[in-house]
Hints:
single chain; alpha/beta; TIM Barrel; 8 strands; 14% strand; binds phosphoenolpyruvate
Amino acid sequence: MSSYHRKYIVAGNWKMNKNAVEAKQFIEELVVELGTQSDVGVVVCPPFTALESVARALEGSHYCAVGAQNMHPEPSGAYTGEVSAEMLRHLFVSYVILGHSERRAYFGETDDFIRQKVLVALENNLKPILCVGETLEQRDAGHMFDVVGHQLREGMRGVDASQLESFVLAYEPVWAIGTGRTATPEQAQEMHAFLRKQLAGQFSEDVAQKVRILYGGSAKPDNVEQLFRQEDVDGGLVGGASLEVRSFMKIIEVAHQLTEQEFATV
Length: 266
Ligand code: PEP
């Protein structure tokens, strides 16, 4: 982590897993395990159908926030199957994952559409977790910085710098998602530093230092420490390993220990 202190965030993306009952059980266990730790920002992102039971199970707890996995930019209307920012706010959702590579690949989401959602999320006081990342072919062809730089620039065009205090970016190389193949700490750091530099150019150095950049892609308890130790890696967006309380907690614990070490050396 950098000399500029950014609190780690560990966010769990459950994808299309867990019904409302399973989600409630998970949160009840997680709340006990988390206790009163507050130095790591913990976010769980269940499917829409479990948002309410998760929010209810978290009532009164200040140590875990709720995120959605997607939203539609329109406030209401004839958009079958979609959910608006206002509907999410109504369920006490505070984060929303936008531009996940599965949305881009399977549902044809474009940078333009993702930007509309980013702007609407911010207007509604939802904190976006904007995902960017290259495919293996793009990396092998040496195009990863162009691809990821473009996704960032387009996804955040028109955003006001004053809205970026709680903005979260997630670098998720597509070749590492759900594959068991993780980016090396050096590959992650290289891309995170690139993203931070681009944020400084697009907005300001101050904004670039404040935005949390999470790593995502087969992050697990046994590989996150080296990733989280990188200067520009501010936590993780975790898929598979967020589905069990034990493995999710272990990842949170790594972030907690690194935070303690950082303060011990100040
Ligand atoms: C994700 O899809 O956001 C993700 C990081 O998944 P996994 O950890 O399973 O690779």
